[in-house]
């Protein structure tokens, strides 16, 4: 009887493990400490991966290629892993965000040189926007998520200064918004709001144009799923938000890597697979129509 009971417990445990590793969406992600960019099926299987050091941002493009940045630059790679575009950052620089732009150029933000650049298809810098950060902020902590908006402005997470800054197309500062913690991602939403993940502030906030918080997700709002370092995010067309709960800083292996949360703060799915992943810090969900809001 004890032997049979033990087998039943083992089967139940294996079933639970498979359930936890299953994703409701296929997605592309960065595993920062795992050192790779991955395509993951809806069943949780890694279908494609590319090794790189400390990846931070990733996009599957309309042509099926994968664009991503890592500590020393950015690459566009075909599904067959052929490099079709590359940007190599200068020495003593860290790259923490990238974005495909209309026309084929790629936005890159560099810590160390303190600049946003737009790089053309030949790998040459077509535009440069200088950024100014306070001297006491270490290179690694200068910037994170950076996006160019539809109106040609730039949104930059000044991680070490706890603020999000909006600049016009010429680099003039239009506004600086103080936020809790160390912001890692800023997403311009279709209604003009901004979604900001607050890193080790253990929360995410949505701001209207005046800077007023109109929605927030706090550290302990999700029972059994405390927010750790809030990194990448993806707003879905149905209003739900997919968050990357970065599990570094003492939390490796302890809870899901990714959570999808409704407006009323219900978790509708989560992804957890500590055998294959260490710290997922960026994601693009692949089964929703339209251009991703991320």
Defining key terms:
294 residues, mainly beta, 24 strands, 7% helix
Query: For the report, how would you describe the main beta sheet?
Result: 4 strands, antiparallel
> What would you call the structural class?
mainly beta
**Average pLDDT level:** 92
Name the shape in a single word: globular
Radius of gyration: 19 Å
The proportion of strand residues reads 35-45%
Output the CATH topology of the domain at 24-186 and 195-201 and 273-285: Methylamine Dehydrogenase, Chain H
Could you state the order of secondary-structure elements as H and E?
A: HEEEEEEEEEEEEEEEEEEEEEEEE
Residue runs with pLDDT of under 50 for 5 or more positions: 1-22
What is the name of the CATH superfamily of the domain at 24-186 and 195-201 and 273-285? YVTN repeat-like/Quinoprotein amine dehydrogenase
Q: Please give the alpha-carbon distance between the first and last residues.
A: 53 Å
> What is the spatial order of strands in the main beta sheet?
3-2-1-24
């Amino acid at each position: 009887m004890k032997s049979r009971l033990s087998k039943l417990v083992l089967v139940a445990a294996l079933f639970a493990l498979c359930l936890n590793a299953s994703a409701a969406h296929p997605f592309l992600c960065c595993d920062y400490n795992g050192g790779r960019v991955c395509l993951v099926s809806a069943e949780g299987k890694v279908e494609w991966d590319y090794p790189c050091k400390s990846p931070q941002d990733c996009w599957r493009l309309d042509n099926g290629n994968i664009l991503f940045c890592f500590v020393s630059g950015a690459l566009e790679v075909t599904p067959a892993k052929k490099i079709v575009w590359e940007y190599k950052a200068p020495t003593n620089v860290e790259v923490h965000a990238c974005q495909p732009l209309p026309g084929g150029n790629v936005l890159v933000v560099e810590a160390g040189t303190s600049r946003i650049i737009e790089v053309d298809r030949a790998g040459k810098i077509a535009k440069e926007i200088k950024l100014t950060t306070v001297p006491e902020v270490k290179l690694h902590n200068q910037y994170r998520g950076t996006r160019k908006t539809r109106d040609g402005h730039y949104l930059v997470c000044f991680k070490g200064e706890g603020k999000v800054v909006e600049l016009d197309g010429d680099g003039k500062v239009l506004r600086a918004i103080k936020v809790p913690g160390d912001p890692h991602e800023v997403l311009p939403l279709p209604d003009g709001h901004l979604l900001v993940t607050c890193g080790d502030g253990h929360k995410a906030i949505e701001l209207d144009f005046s800077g007023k918080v109109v929605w927030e997700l706090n550290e302990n709002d999700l029972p059994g799923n405390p927010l750790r370092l809030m990194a990448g995010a993806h707003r879905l067309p149905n209003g739900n938000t997919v968050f990357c709960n970065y599990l570094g800083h003492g939390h490796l292996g302890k809870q899901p890597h990714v959570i999808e949360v409704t407006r009323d703060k219900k978790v509708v799915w989560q992804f957890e697979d500590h055998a294959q992943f260490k710290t997922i810090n960026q994601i693009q969900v692949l089964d929703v129509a339209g251009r991703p809001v991320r």
